[in-house]
Design brief:
With about 60 residues, the protein is mostly helical. It contains 4 helices and no strands. About 50% of the residues lie in helices and about 0% in strands. The longest helix has 13 residues.
């Protein structure tokens, strides 16, 4: 099972509620998640339509 950045939010919030502070880098190491997946959210570009295919031929 692949873990995502969202998986890290719950444990860190639970630990923080208990008064335990754990660096995000340490959480990433524990769960085997690259840090960049926590800091950078993927964005998908809007689809590009080629005009010659978008309009019907006369």
């Amino acid at each position: 099972m692949r873990r995502t950045a969202n998986d890290l939010e719950h444990p860190s919030q639970g630990l923080l509620a208990d008064g335990i502070t754990v660096p995000l880098t340490k959480l990433c190491a524990w769960f085997g998640v690259p840090r960049r997946t926590v800091y950078y959210k993927p964005t998908k570009a809007a689809p590009k339509v080629d005009r010659r295919f978008a309009e019907p031929k006369p």
